[in-house]
Amino acid sequence: MSKLFTRAILSIGLLMLMSMSVFAQTASLTGRITDSEGQAVLGATVQVQGTQAATASGPEGAYSFQNIAVGNQTITVTAMGYKTASKAIAIKAGENVLDIVIENTASDLDEIVVIGYGVARKKQISGSVASVGPKDFNKGVVSSPDQLLAGKVAGLTVNRSGGDPTAGATVQLRGPSSLTASSSPLYVIDGVVGANIELVAPDDIVSMDVMKDASSTAIYGSRAANGVIFVTTKRGKAGTPVLSYSGYAATERIANQVNVLSAAEHAAFVEEHGLAVSPSEAGHTTDWQEAITRTGFSHNHNLSMTGGSEGTRYNASINYFSNQGIVKRNDLERIVARVGLDQNAFDDRLKLALNLANSLNRSNHVDYGIFNGAARFVPTSPIMSDDPTYAPYGGYFQVPGRTGYMNPVAMLNQRDENRNNNTLLASLKADLTLYKGLTWTNVLSYQQNQYDRKYYMHRTDFDSNALGQGFAQRTNLKNIDQILESYLNYNLTKDQHAFDAMVGYSYQKTKNNDGVIARSTGFLSDDLGANNLNLGTLPNGYNPFQDYPYILESLLISYYGRVGYTFADKYILSAAVRRDGSSKFGANNRWATFGSVSGAWRISEEAFMKDQTIFSDLKLKAGYGVSGNQNIDPYRQIIIFGPRDGQFYYNGEWVNAYGVNQNENPDLKWESTSMFNAGIDFELLKGRFSGSIEYYNKETKDLLYEYDVPSPPYQYNRLLANGASMTNKGVEVVLNAVVYRNENFSYNTSVNFARNINKVGSLASNIENIGVSQRFEGGIGLEGWTGQTASIVLPGHALGTFYVANYIGYDEATQKTIYQKPNGELVTQDQISAPDDYMVMGQALPKFTYGWNNNFQFKNWDFNFFLRGMYGNQIFNATRADLSRLQQANVTNISKDAVEEGIFETPLIASSRFLEDGSFLRLDNATLGYTFKTGNLRHLKNARVYLTAQNLFTITNYSGVDPEVGLGGLAPGIDNRNYYPKTRSFSMGVNFTF
After folding, report:
1. How far apart are CA 708 and CA 590, in angstroms?
2. Where are the alpha helices (DSSP H) in 433-530?
3. How many CA atoms lie less than 13 Å away from 923 in the CB half-sphere?
4. Tens of pLDDT along 447-484?
5. What does UniProt give as the signal peptide span (predicted)?
6. Cα–Cα distance measured from residue 131 to residue 616, given in angstroms and rounded to the nearest whole number
7. Per-residue DSSP letter, 550
8. What is the CA angle 850-852-857, rounded to 5?
9. How many angstroms separate the CA atoms of 86 and 589, rounded?
10. CB of 718 within 8 A of CB of 665?
11. Residue 840 vs residues 758, 787, 843: alpha-carbon distances, Å
12. Which band of pLDDT confidence, cut at 50, 70 and 90, is reported for residue 676?
């Protein structure tokens, strides 16, 4: 025992001597990181090469290390927008000082931008490309990554009307360009074409590159007419493992409510004008909008790790997002997990990249009819009643016999809709260097989406389809997308010449709607909801599979190529071609070819520009290309049989009739968009000022449109065909400026402006004698508004043109509204014939959109605010029209605006009376943050806390809930009582890097 004790004492003593020796041989290192102009660089990563010691520079560029080993060391500095710098130093015991100057890249001109099937430096781009990084993303509660770009890219409209966390956004680039097919851009995530944007958590995104013009997007052929958005996520890097956590918690409240009368105001108005409210609807005080809303709470957490060696690198992240809507029983919960592994082999000639991503979404939805009910329901009515009359309705107060009038609280609580969306993406990328400059890339990807929707209306629901029996519907569908991409890239640089070429092959097989939609009724209990449809008792003739889905399979095969040439970094040429074959189209038009050519001249590199000091970069660029749109369902080109209305008697019994539900069209083909783009990129005073000005002319031909056709000779009365056309012309301006910068304070600002003019061309088809001269869209559907529409698709006018009666004013003497016919005749409402007496009265698309971003830095503090808006658009306020029935105030609530207007004639036609200016300026978000000094902390590299406010104010003349109404489809800009109130949120968040 004594020997063991002696050995232990000796061992401890030896360890103590070794530790003292180690500590005796350590020292401290401090210094500053500055750029080539002597300005402090904040947030640069400073690392002792070959060790795990790393820190970040503070607001004054200062950094420090404690207990650094003595001897020769190399300090490496990396920072966004700067070249990596390394500097050797002989560390001595005690204090050491090392200042390091890092060189600016030419104001990010050397920044790498993702392009189709490759990358390029920003200065080599000849097309129209906009890059947005995390520092520029919108802050606050973001339910979908596309919202990060709202207002940030000139010409890109990200429109999310309302604050529903479960609703997506309408995304359009350089105006609408289709009548039938989707106008959404194509997403390419880490090289996977068509990947689901919900597979990416905002905190995992490194950059989003938006390809605007056809010369940039034509390489994606038939899928790129609406632009391409490349999303690049975090990858593992060689070196010390980096563990990061970011999270926030937020509260959301309703930003604006419908301006209807309160219970006291309504009672006073009814009494003043001699109206009588039913006794059952009197004597109570109910704020119906307050009854269905709440303060929402949201929180987001993102944990990620990256690291590895030069040969093996890894990244992993998990994101949890919970967004509670401001409407009760409405919320979204999402988990996104991502894993990536990069492996080098064969002396780095082979590079393998494996990616796995999975998104789990659970959401609870509400019927948007509750908003109309909350506005219209008489505020002196009760929510619930003990009267046995209302027992069949679950005790909720209802008014039988009144059309379109339902208790919104009952509708909210007696309808259950929850959805589960599980999306999995697996991809494997292999880059093999065959020869110097020649790389062969293969990408295999598999994406699967499992969609499950449960919808149940309680047995006490006031709807006639459910009252006393309940109604359930279950939808379970699976979508699968499989892609193989194989392409060769070759790059050669010799003297002043740079040449690149790419050729490739693509195979994509898609299978959607593989599943079932079933429904049932006749339930004895509400307990199981839509979980067991077999518990229903179906009446005779009830078809539980009326909405049985088609399985939609399609195949796309493509061959593509691109060549580029650059001379002396000042003359740039690029050309691309793609040939696509798609099973979606007719036998006569399965294949199509798309091509592009573009060029740029960097004037700043010319000899006559060398002595000037104003322009650090000046580039002229122009391009022309053709891309396509195939965003329609498969099988639209063939004849389809299905159930028809009615039955016939056969073999002693009545059977359901079947017939043709879709005509065949062997000439069906994709839409084709050609675009000319010209612009100038400039940078002044070494990047102090920069920007771009671009002009584009975009023409879409062979638009897909569904025409009315005679039957016979056609077997069905509708036919999908090509032939219509549409143009978009516009100008985009982006200006960036470093307004002021010194060691302690900096102010950067950026402004973008976009003007787009949309015009519908011919509506004739490519089939003889089939076409239309105009088409009425935007059905309103208010009580008494039979067949009323507010929009028209008309050649020579923009999509979203309002076509309504011309309202002149109100005649107090006769108490009638006055309108003007197209021939100039003044008439009353009952003398207007719709739509024959209607006229073009405005348009829903804005004349221009804009965004203004501002960043301030003062020592450790940072402050950002972002404003965006649109100008020159109009909104048809059908909600206000519905709440302007002053004579019916005894049976429905009315708006305060209608009371102030004082028109007692009930509106029964769509007119310019309800067209309003939709222009707005919104303070979209503002963020105040503080970054802590972590130089003396061994394990904590970065720590930041921040406060963010969203939608702080909106300046607008629009009287509705919010001027940002939907801009998609053939009838944009209509506020038709289906709004979800916009929210105002306040959040607090943290970012830690270890």
Report:
1. 24
2. none
3. 13
4. 999 999 999 999 999 999 999 999 999 999 999 999 99
5. 1-24
6. 20
7. P
8. 170
9. 59
10. no
11. 15, 18, 8
12. very high
